[in-house]
Amino acid sequence: MAVTGILLTCLAALLIYLAVRLYSKYPSSKVRALVEKIPGPPARPIVGHAHIFKRGAEFYEQLHTLCKEYGHKGIIRAWLGYHCLVVATNANAAEVLLKSSTHMTKSFLYDFIRPWLGTGLLMLISTGSKWHARRKMITPTFHFKILEDFLEVFNEQSTVMTKHLEKMAGKSKGFDVIPFVTLCALDIICDTAMGRHVNAQAHSDSEYVQAIYRISDLIMERIRRPWLWPDGIYRLLPAGKEHERLLTVLHSFTNEVIRERTAEWERHLASDSDKDSATTDKPSLIGGRKRLAFLDMLLHASAKHQLTVEDIREEVDTFMFEGHDTTSAAISWAIHLIGANPEVQKKVHDELDQIFGQSDRLVTMDDIKQMKYLECVVKESLRLFPSVPMMAREIAEDCTINGFFVPKGSTGVIQTSVIHRDPDYFPEPEAFKPERFTNENSVGRHPFCYIPFSAGLRNCIGQKFAMIEEKVLLSSILRHFQIASLQKRGDLMPSGEIILRSQNGINIKLEKR
After folding, report:
1. At the top level of CATH, which class does the domain 36-512 belong to?
2. What is the pLDDT of residues 230-255, one digit of tens each?
3. Which of 9, 25, 381, 492 could form a disulfide with 334 if both were Cys (CB 3.0 to 4.6 A apart)?
4. Binding residues
5. Where does heme bind (predicted)?
6. How far apart are CA 161 and CA 193, in angstroms?
7. Which residues are bridge partners to 1 per DSSP?
């Protein structure tokens, strides 16, 4: 009985502590009254709207439903416990958040990603001078000449993927294409960014890939539940313990990549011919490679005392995640849409036949430039299924969005997947029409109505890399196969857990051309 009494006392103390903490963070009644003028569903005391948010594909569908119901002013409000969220649902609202140099900091909600990705550049958690220094340092990695060098890797790995897909062609049952594309993208990012061959396509049960999927689910679930925010409580729960195990898997993978590359780098610096390379402005090629990897840039910066070992790990983790997961999701959605729209597929086939004829040669940069219709297909696919369906920014000072007061300390959420469906800019928004993105049809469009790679000062630094990769992989598939989608759009289950994926796969059939 004594033990039970102690436990109950501790539990009561914990609940009182949490209640006091939540109450102390609540905005004043005056501020809350102003926020309540923003359209949105009714909230409950303490929990706000946290109790209504669903999971997985149901959560993504729920967000779209709420935006349709309350987003007629281009902005809606919601509460996660004491914390105010304002959701931008049109281009004007998005512009306020993305164009501003004041609201550049990522929301505190990204703190839940920090244990995994730290403050790496691509997740945009870094701020101020650190962000500017990292951006300046990493930008040369995406110079056109370096991207051209990476084309060899894109071709090599897409050829491997195509050979695996040949084994699936002609089967009446069909298959899920996502694992094939994901492992190919992982091979590409490991080679181009890390300088390491991991042969992921030869090992379809990648523990690293599965860990990314699962930790993304856990992070989004925690974000939606304010009672899971305190670290001390979360670590005691089964989900918290699973989170720690997954972090070990993910960090072990990248630590091994860094360790191997660092050893090679140190051997390079110790060689007689390259002793002074650490003092030059640019890193030199190592290990007999034909091209520099992203990691080489970081190691060079480390040698010049610009980055710590932890800094390197943060950037590597971020590149590994962003560099393969967003791209593989985009390609997978495009494959579905192409396979579901035979008239679009024919136009892509015609364009590729005109470029390559009957030749089985590798893709060149000149070929990439000629894939104009395929680029429209990719862009329209990203409109309907943006790899990152939402972004968040901290409101650094009181501001006005679409005529509504938004208080400092709130979180501004840019709901990309809703903004992309604004009929003012995209008539028949649910229709798949690649022609929307021809040069002539894109003239005069609001610069923030289409933002698959974000926009403003902190737009995606790797968007050119991603577009080239997507063109190479899709063209490789379509030069060899006819695609038939086995799911209707309504059968798909988009799940916006950090990255927009299909919860029930992308099932297709392939026939050799």
Report:
1. mainly alpha
2. 999 999 999 999 999 999 999 998 88
3. 381
4. 460
5. 460
6. 19
7. none
